[in-house]
Each structure stands twice: as C-alpha cells, then as structure tokens.
Write a structure and sequence with these properties.
Elements (H helix, E strand, L loop, with lengths): L1 H33 L8 H22 L1 E5 L13 E6 L5 E2 L6 E3 L9 E4 L9 E7 L4 E5 L2 E4 L2 E2 L2 E6 L13 E5 L6 E5 L11 E4 L4 E5 L9 H4 L2 E2 L3 E13 L4 E2 L6 E2 L2
Antiparallel strand pairs: 1-2, 2-16, 3-4, 5-6, 5-16, 6-14, 7-8, 7-13, 8-9, 10-11, 11-12, 14-15, 16-17, 16-18
Helix pairs in contact: 1-2
EC number: 3.4.21.89
Main location: membrane
Organism: Luteimonas vadosa
C-alpha cells in the first residue's frame, strides 16, 4: 500500500498549495476585477478547496492515529485469519513521517508479545505482520517446535486439532497450542508432519534497536527465523483490532470476527 501513501501525500500537498496560492495571490484580484458581479473560481481551485480538508484529515489520521490493513496470508493464524481487516495503532511506538517512516516523536517501544506491522528489510515496499518474541539484548532460539528465550524454553499446552475455514481450511488438523510467552500467552499452530519444509531452527542474538518476530502459524510463516532480526526503523505500528472479515470461500462477511481484540 506504499503507492497509496505516496499518492495521498502528493494529492494533499498539491490541493493545499493550489488553495493557498489562490487565497494569497488570485482571489483578491478576481474580486477587484469583478466589481459587483461575482466571478467564478477556476474549476481547479474549486476542487482543491473542496478536497484539501478531506485529504488532510485522512492523511493525519492514517499517518499518526490508526491505519487499516488487510491480512492476505495464513502466517498469523489462528490469531488472525485470511480476510481479516485490522486497525493498527500508529502512535504506540512513536510518531513517524509518512513515506519515509522516519520517527520524529518518541512515545513507546514494542513489548514482548505485541503483534506489529512492519516493512521487512528484504521487502521494504511491503507491509508484513508478526508477533514480537525477542527484545533488544535477548537470545532467541527455535528447536523442535519450541521457542527458547534467554535459554529458557517456553511452555506449551495442546488444545486439540485446529479447524480452519474459508481460505484457511488447509490448516485443519494442525495442532492448536497455547504458547506461554511471558506476560502474553497466545495460541499458535503447529503442523505435526512437514518433512520437506525448513523448520527454521537456530539461535539469534537480538542487537540494540532490533526485534525478533515470528508468525503464530509456525510452519507457514516467513519470519525472523529465515531473515534475521527486525530493525526498529522498519516498524509501522501495533495491531490492536479486527474491524472486518471478508472471505468469499467462508461465505462472505465473518460477523463473528468484527470487533475482536488482537491478543
């Protein structure tokens, strides 16, 4: 969606500039020429005056308050489903400029367990979503479907077999587990038999200014196990709410998803 962000900034700037220049330079001259007869504004000025306030409000809300995103893949199942539309808090981790994502106001930092939207270092034009597992200074390991944080294995509790729906139906039969991440227990999926898939086993030390992120669908997620740690500068915000779900293969709108918090 970076193209939309660029277009929104350009259109807001352009309409605002046209409106401002007309007010400062041309509106008074038109009034002087017209006398008692009202002279119409040029069409481009009329459109700029009408659209600039709307575009400016959308830009401010989207850049600094909350931004909508759509979940296109299964990497965060069962927490987020394919077809979920989510809202992302854009000020939780500091205010950032649109387009270049440069932080200009410090507010907070990610906590362990937060679900974050970011631009991965190897795909800087795409928005991805994962869960923060490792904080700066941590050592994170993943071996035999178990996450270790600073040498301590996380505890797991099996809930049973997962039953997928719609475009996520292929995950039916996976093991539904509760992963006891300190302070933020959450559900994850594990596929019991994946003989031809790289499980992403390894160990990583998280440097200052970086985070280690993983998807909740452990065997269907391209995450830090395969490309390393995430720089803080790539963060876009904290996901906090599902406001809509549309999956044609599940019958259309998933009303039971609307308004769900993101744990």
């Amino acid at each position: 969606m970076r193209w939309f962000e660029i277009a929104l900034v350009v259109l807001t700037f352009a309409t605002g500039l046209v409106w401002l220049l007309d007010r400062l330079l041309f509106a008074r001259k038109r009034a002087e020429r017209s006398g008692l007869i009202e002279e119409k504004e040029p069409l481009v000025v009329d459109y700029a005056r009408a659209f600039f306030p709307v575009l400016a409000v959308v830009l401010v809300l989207r850049s600094f308050v909350a931004e909508p995103f759509r979940i296109p893949s299964s990497s965060m199942m069962p927490t987020l489903l394919i077809g979920d539309f989510i809202l992302v808090n854009k000020f939780a981790y500091g205010l950032r400029l649109p387009i270049n994502n440069r932080k200009f106001v410090e507010i907070g930092e990610p906590e362990r367990g937060d679900v974050v939207v970011f631009r991965p270092p190897h795909r800087p034009d795409e928005d991805w979503i994962k869960r923060v597992i490792g904080l700066p200074g941590d050592t994170v390991a993943y071996r035999d479907n178990t996450v270790y944080v600073n040498g301590e294995p996380l505890r797991y509790r099996r809930l049973g077999e997962y039953q997928g729906r719609g475009r996520g139906a292929d995950m039916s039969g996976a093991s539904l587990m509760v992963e006891d991440l300190p302070g933020r227990p959450h559900q994850v999926l594990e596929v019991d038999q994946t003989p031809f898939m790289d499980p992403g086993d390894g160990e990583w030390t998280v440097p200052e200014g970086h985070y280690f992120v993983m998807g909740d669908n452990r065997d269907r997620s391209d995450d830090g196990r395969f490309w390393g740690t995430l720089p803080e500068s790539q963060l876009r915000g904290k996901a906090f709410l599902v406001w809509m779900n549309i999956d044609s293969k599940a019958g259309g709108i998933g009303f039971d998803r609307i308004g769900n918090d993101i744990p």
